[in-house]
Automatic annotation (TrEMBL):
<dbReference type="Pfam" id="PF14520">
    <property type="entry name" value="HHH_5"/>
</dbReference>
<keyword id="KW-0963">Cytoplasm</keyword>
<keyword id="KW-0267">Excision nuclease</keyword>
<protein>
    <recommendedName>
        <fullName>UvrABC system protein C</fullName>
    </recommendedName>
</protein>
<dbReference type="InterPro" id="IPR035901">
    <property type="entry name" value="GIY-YIG_endonuc_sf"/>
</dbReference>
<dbReference type="Pfam" id="PF01541">
    <property type="entry name" value="GIY-YIG"/>
</dbReference>
<dbReference type="InterPro" id="IPR010994">
    <property type="entry name" value="RuvA_2-like"/>
</dbReference>
<dbReference type="InterPro" id="IPR000305">
    <property type="entry name" value="GIY-YIG_endonuc"/>
</dbReference>
<feature type="compositionally biased region" description="Basic and acidic residues">
    <location>
        <begin position="1"/>
        <end position="10"/>
    </location>
</feature>
<comment type="subunit">
    <text>Interacts with UvrB in an incision complex.</text>
</comment>
<feature type="region of interest" description="Disordered">
    <location>
        <begin position="1"/>
        <end position="69"/>
    </location>
</feature>
<feature type="domain" description="UVR">
    <location>
        <begin position="276"/>
        <end position="311"/>
    </location>
</feature>
<feature type="domain" description="UvrC family homology region profile">
    <location>
        <begin position="327"/>
        <end position="564"/>
    </location>
</feature>
<feature type="compositionally biased region" description="Acidic residues">
    <location>
        <begin position="49"/>
        <end position="66"/>
    </location>
</feature>
<feature type="domain" description="GIY-YIG">
    <location>
        <begin position="88"/>
        <end position="166"/>
    </location>
</feature>
<dbReference type="InterPro" id="IPR036876">
    <property type="entry name" value="UVR_dom_sf"/>
</dbReference>
<dbReference type="Pfam" id="PF22920">
    <property type="entry name" value="UvrC_RNaseH"/>
</dbReference>
């Protein structure tokens, strides 16, 4: 959803009632590819990219748009043609340019009247004038009600990411805590995605870290199991979590069914907001055990109470009068916006998160916040109450749309006094501080990119850097990886891994693996360019890299150079090889570029530190990908893949540890205690699960 010259609009996804259009038919809406989406933490687009996008837009003479002919007149003519066929009912309209890219998605109670406002010759601000000048086609979807139009508009904006709309730039689902309901001994676990599994869901939490910390504390407090059902069913003796008092041990009947059911009920009550009653009950039990001189039992209750206190202390603000609400506060500075969101459920604070939506600098805080809310709840269940820092237009319409979506009443308000106002003020303070940090980080990143360009002799700071690395163990489970960085830091949703597929590849041939990875990557890019793929929009990172960094010395660099030469790209892509220092000493790396002398930077040079960060991130990602691939093979092939471990020793290991996961976690000393496992075999097993880098 977005603000247009006449009104603001808002939120989530609903099917249209009927379709109409000025063109013969409305084409299907196609979601953009994953490569077009920005990572949640890569917030504000760089000024350089925005300026490049501005240069591609048609020019208009002044802010009023008073131009008798030229692109603005052509755009108005296209809109006037659409007005003739537009319905007077509610609907959603899309403005498209000559390349069939969607420029803007809007909704209106009366589509004909709304489009007519664009067709008038004067009175448009520069942003609207440029949008009109770029428009060649208008498509319309009719809906039964204005509420349906609002929901559809938000859905289309998230799919199409138009140039002139406010963009949320975050499609990640929030994590929840799930207490399962499909097993006699319920399990507590972290959950993301569709809530299809039977059980009780609690959240949303602002981050995975908050969920993990809470689950760990809940295990200490209520001793509810976190293991999978298959692990649970295979146990013949309690696992380590039982020994460290983080599980009651229902798998081996260390606790009976009624006792475990009571623990689950207490955990559910605590997460449902009845924390005071649960703590009172535990305190009473502790006192009773102490009076009966059962000090070990009393100590157990004491530890459980301490775990509950730890959970609540981590949550920070816990309101007295707000049971269930989301709090939104927006702060603007330097043409950028930050929206801080706090989540309160069952009277407890489940954390907060900062968002940096992309929006034209001319948008007011109210306009950005209205658009943000519409897209935010497109795929998330709204709470009973939404508290805002600014009044927004069409507040009642948005509330009605969320009511339909949630199936319960949703109140949207800007509190004027009391605890609710204090919560909003606290969120606003966090928004201001988060935007300050983001602007400082962006400035630092810009300086580093400028320094990198100066050091390497690049014509301008790179907007897209790709870093490549590969990993293997004696040639097995070979995998390559690419990470991407830009003006806003690492762009994790554009990372890629490459399972090495070449047959006849000599095990451990790093050059051949690098050649395969680069061939697959750049052949795809060349093919997309041959098919006339449209250039990236201003909120996207360019698809072609300005700089390619290879983890390796002159040999790896020449292998990469050969691949680019075969594809005719040697002059289009700048290559940089990063060789480790003597004895792999960080800070003494040597930089290699084609047909240039080796570059040695001072150990404290910020540019060298920046290159190290890029290289280390690629190394982290490829090692993680390699381990996942190796673990998959281990599960499929078993422990016999380890040299010297046959069926007898495998059986002894499984009898001792119970599962492959426990064997993987075991220390070298624990492995040596298994009957039939010698010190050498223990070393081989440990090194198999904990390899050094390739």
């Amino acid at each position: 959803m977005t603000q247009d010259p006449a009104e603001t609009r808002d939120t989530a996804a609903a099917p249209p009632a009927e379709t109409a259009a000025p063109s013969p038919a409305v084409p299907d809406v196609k979601p953009r590819s994953a490569s077009g989406a920005q990572d949640i933490d890569a917030a504000t687009a760089s000024l350089t990219v925005e300026e490049d996008e501005e240069s591609r837009l048609p020019d208009v003479e002044d802010d009023s748009g008073e131009v008798a002919d030229g692109p603005l007149a052509v755009g108005r003519a296209a809109i006037e043609q659409a007005v003739r066929l537009a319905p007077t009912s509610p609907g959603v309209y899309r403005m498209l340019n000559a390349a069939n890219d969607v420029l803007y998605v809007g909704k209106a109670k009366n589509v004909k009247k709304r489009l007519s406002s664009y067709a008038r010759p004067t009175g448009h601000v520069m942003r609207i004038a440029r949008m009109i000048a770029a428009t060649v086609t208008v498509e319309i979807i009719s809906t039964a009600t204005e509420t349906e139009a609002l929901l559809l508009e938000a859905n289309l904006i998230k799919q199409l990411r138009p140039r002139f709309n406010v963009l949320l730039r975050d499609d990640k689902s929030f994590p929840y805590i799930l207490i399962t309901g499909d097993h006699w001994a319920p399990q507590i676990l972290k959950h993301r995605g569709a809530q299809t599994r039977p059980g009780r869901y609690f959240g949303p939490f602002a981050s995975v870290g908050a969920v993990n910390r809470t689950i760990t504390a809940l295990q200490r407090a209520f001793l509810v199991r976190s293991c999978t059902d298959s692990f649970f069913e295979s146990r013949t003796r309690p696992c380590l979590l039982y020994q460290i008092r983080r599980c009651a041990g229902p798998c081996t009947s260390e606790i009976d069914f009624p006792g475990y059911t009571e623990l689950v009920r207490e955990a559910t009550d605590f997460l449902s907001g009845r924390s005071r009653a649960v703590k009172g009950l535990l305190a009473a039990e502790m006192e009773k055990a102490s009076n009966e001189l059962e000090f070990e039992t009393a100590a157990l209750y004491r530890d459980r109470l301490a775990a509950l206190s730890a959970i609540q202390s981590q949550q920070g603000i816990n309101p007295r009068t707000v049971e269930e609400a989301d709090v939104f506060a927006i702060y603007q500075e330097g043409g950028y916006s930050c929206v801080e969101v706090f989540f309160f459920r069952t009277g407890q604070n489940w954390g907060n998160r900062a968002y940096f939506p992309r929006a034209e600098k001319s948008f007011t805080p109210e306009e950005v916040l209205a658009s943000f809310l519409a897209q935010f709840y497109d795929d998330k269940p709204p709470p009973k109450q939404i508290l805002l820092s600014h009044d927004i237009e069409e507040c009642e319409l948005l509330a009605n749309a969320l009511c339909i979506k949630a199936g319960h009443k949703v109140e949207i308000a800007v509190p004027k006094r009391g605890e609710k106002k204090e919560l909003v003020a606290h969120a606003l303070t966090n928004a201001r501080e988060a935007l300050g940090r983001k602007l400082a980080d962006t400035a630092t990143q810009t300086r580093l990119l400028e320094g990198l360009a100066s050091t390497l002799g690049l014509p301008k700071p790179p907007q897209r850097i790709e870093v490549y690395d590969n990993s293997h163990i004696q040639g097995t489970n070979a995998v390559g990886a690419m990470i991407v960085a830009g003006p806003d830091g690492f762009i994790k949703n554009q990372y890629r891994k490459f399972n090495i597929k070449s047959e006849g590849l000599t095990p451990g041939d790093d050059y051949a693996m690098m050649r395969e990875v680069l061939q697959r990557r750049f052949k795809r890019l060349v093919a997309s360019r041959a098919e006339g793929e449209a250039p990236a929009k201003d909120d996207e990172t360019p698809r072609w890299p300005d700089l390619v960094i290879i983890d390796g010395g002159r040999g790896q660099l020449n292998a990469a150079r050969g691949v680019l030469a075969e594809l005719g790209l040697e002059t289009e892509v700048t290559l940089l090889g990063v060789a480790k220092g003597p004895d792999r000493d960080a800070g003494r790396e040597t930089l290699f570029m084609p047909e240039r002398e080796a570059i040695k930077l001072e150990p404290r040079d910020p540019v060298l530190y920046f290159i190290q960060r890029l290289r280390d991130e690629a190394h982290r990602f490829v090692i993680g990908s390699h381990r996942k691939l190796r673990k998959k093979d281990i599960r499929e092939a078993g422990l016999q893949e380890i040299p010297g471990i046959g069926p007898t020793r495998k059986r002894a290991l499984l009898h001792h540890f119970g599962t492959l996961k426990e064997i993987e976690r075991a220390s070298l000393g624990d492995l040596g205690k298994v009957p039939g496992i010698s010190a050498e075999s223990a070393r081989r097993i440990f090194e198999f699960f904990h390899p050094g880098p390739a």
